[in-house]
Specification:
Layout (H helix, E strand, L loop, with lengths): L9 E2 L5 E2 L3 E3 L15 H12 L4 E3 L3 E2 L11 E2 L6 H11 L5 E7 L14 E2 L17 E2 L2 H21 L3 E6 L4 H6 L14 H4 L1 H14 L5 E6 L10 H13 L4 E5 L7 H4 L11 H8 L6 E4 L5 H9 L5 E4 L1 H5 L3 H6 L16 H24 L11 H11 L11
Parallel strand pairs: 3-4, 3-14, 4-7, 5-6, 5-7, 7-10, 8-9, 10-11, 11-12, 12-13, 13-14
Antiparallel strand pairs: 1-2
Helix pairs in contact: 1-2, 1-13, 2-3, 3-6, 13-14
Length: 409
C-alpha cells in the first residue's frame, strides 16, 4: 500500500520534526472559569486530540490581558499564577509525540461591550458591519502602551515554553489587534507604528523578534495571517505577501493562512461559492512558491482525497482541520489506518429562517463549543441539526453575553 502524503513527517526551518501533516487549527474552547483560568477540561480535551493522531495541536486563542477579552470563557495567561494547570495542559497535549502550540492573542477593538467598556486599538476607529453595534468605540493606544503590549505577548510566550508547550502561534488574523495594526483602514497612526506598511507591521515584527530572542532559535513560532481583510481600504493581498516575505526572512517556522474579520467573516464562509471549497488554497499556493516556510491552509478539508491532492500538488504543507475534529477527534488516526469516512459538518437550524440568518454564526460556534465540552467530559460528540440546543446551552453558561458574535478560530 502506497504511503499517504499526510503520513509524512515535516521538518520546520528550525529543525523541529512534526510527525505527520495534520494540523488542528485553533478553535475557541470558551471553557475557562470566571477568572479566565484553564482547567481540567482543557487537559482532557487536548489529551483526547493528542491520542487521535494530529501532528500539531493549536490551542484556542489565549489572551495576554485580563482586561481585554475576545469572548466569555477565554483563557488568559499574563503571569505564572496558573502554571500548575498549564503544565498539565501541555503534558496532555504532547502525548503521542504530538506538538501543542499556544495561540497568543489580543482582541483590540474586537472585545464586546459587555466585556470592555473602552477597548483599545491602533486608532479610534469603531468596528463596522452588521456586528458593529455590539462593540464599544475604541480608544487609540499610546506609543508607550503599544510597547507594553509587545512585552505582554512575549511574556505569555515565555510562560507557554516554561509550562511545556512546544510552540506558540501569534494570532495576526481575523481582525484582532495584530491584524488591526496591519490594516491601513484600522491603523491611521502617525507614530512609528502607523503609515507605511513597514511601520504598520512593526508591532508584529517586534512581537516576533522579542519572542525569538526570549525563546531561542529552536523553539517553534508560527503566525496566523490574513490573506486579505476583504474590506475596502483594508489589509490587501499585496500587503499580506510583503508581510509573509518579511516574517519569513526573520525566521518564522510556520504560517497559517486565513482571511476576514467580524466585518467580513471569510474565515467561516470561505472565498468561493462551493461549500466544500478549501478556503484560501490559491493564495497559499502562491506564497508557498515565494518563501521557504511551511504554509498551512485550514477550512474546507473533508475528504482524504482532497487532502492528498493539496499536499501532492504543493498547495499546502499541512492539512489544517478545525470543526471536524470537534465531531471526530481521531480523524488523523482513522485516515492513517484506512478506516476514515468523510466527516461533514452540521448545518444547524432553529426552524426559523430569519433567526437562523441572524444567529447562524453564533449557533454554529456554540454547537462546536458544546461538542468540545462533551469530549472534555468523556462523552461522545452529539451529532444533530437542532440549533436550539447549542443556543440554550450557551445562554445558560454565559447569560446574555452569549448572544454576542464569536469567532471559532
Amino acid at each position: 500500500m502506497k504511503k499517504l502524503k499526510v503520513a509524512e513527517t515535516l521538518t520546520l526551518p528550525n529543525g523541529t520534526i512534526i510527525k505527520n501533516r495534520f494540523f488542528k487549527s485553533a478553535m475557541s474552547e470558551t471553557m475557562a472559569n470566571r477568572k479566565n483560568q484553564p482547567n481540567q477540561l482543557h487537559v482532557n480535551l487536548y489529551r483526547e486530540w493528542a491520542s487521535g493522531g494530529t501532528g500539531i495541536l493549536v490551542t484556542g486563542n489565549v489572551m495576554v490581558d485580563r482586561s481585554a477579552l475576545g469572548e466569555p470563557g477565554n483563557v488568559v495567561v499574563e503571569d505564572e499564577r496558573d502554571m500548575d494547570v498549564l503544565k498539565q495542559w501541555a503534558k496532555a497535549g504532547t502525548a503521542n509525540n504530538t506538538q501543542i502550540w499556544m495561540q497568543i492573542n489580543h482582541p483590540g477593538k474586537q472585545s464586546p461591550r459587555t466585556l470592555s467598556k473602552e477597548p483599545v486599538a491602533p486608532s479610534a476607529i469603531p468596528v463596522g458591519g452588521s456586528y458593529g453595534s455590539v462593540f464599544n468605540n475604541p480608544r487609540a493606544l499610546t506609543t508607550t502602551e503599544v510597547k507594553e503590549l509587545v512585552t505582554r505577548f512575549i511574556t505569555t510566550a515565555k510562560i507557554a515554553k516554561k509550562a511545556g508547550f512546544t510552540g506558540v502561534q501569534i494570532h495576526g488574523a481575523h481582525g484582532y489587534l495584530v491584524n488591526q495594526f496591519l490594516s491601513p483602514h484600522d491603523n491611521q497612526r502617525t507614530d512609528e507604528y502607523g503609515g507605511t506598511l513597514e511601520n504598520r507591521m512593526r508591532f508584529l515584527v517586534e512581537i516576533y523578534t522579542g519572542m525569538r530572542e526570549s525563546l531561542g532559535s529552536d523553539f517553534p513560532i508560527g503566525l496566523k495571517l490574513n490573506s486579505t481583510d476583504f474590506k475596502d481600504g483594508g489589509f490587501t493581498e499585496e500587503d499580506s505577501i510583503k508581510v509573509v516575505k518579511k516574517i519569513a526572512e526573520l525566521g518564522i517556522d510556520l504560517i497559517e493562512v486565513s482571511g476576514g474579520s467580524y466585518e467580513n467573516p471569510k474565515m467561516s464562509s470561505g472565498t468561493g461559492e462551493g461549500s466544500d471549497e478549501v478556503f484560501f488554497l490559491d493564495y497559499a499556493k502562491k506564497i508557498k512558491s515565494m518563501v521557504d516556510v511551511p504554509i498551512v491552509v485550514t477550512g474546507g478539508f473533508r475528504s482524504k482525497d482532497s487532502m492528498e491532492e493539496a499536499l501532492m500538488n504543493n498547495k499546502t504543507s499541512m492539512i489544517g482541520i478545525a470543526r471536524p475534529l470537534a465531531l471526530v477527534p481521531d480523524i488523523p488516526n482513522q485516515i492513517l489506518e484506512g478506516r476514515y469516512i468523510t466527516v461533514n459538518t452540521q448545518r444547524l437550524t432553529t426552524g426559523f429562517k430569519a433567526l437562523d440568518k441572524k444567529l447562524g454564526a453564533l449557533i454554529g460556534n456554540s454547537y462546536y463549543e458544546q461538542q468540545m465540552k462533551r469530549i472534555a467530559k468523556g462523552k461522545k460528540p452529539k451529532r444533530h441539526q437542532n440549533g436550539w440546543s447549542p443556543l440554550f446551552h450557551t445562554l445558560m453558561l454565559h447569560g446574555p453575553t452569549a448572544l454576542l458574535p464569536r469567532r471559532s478560530k
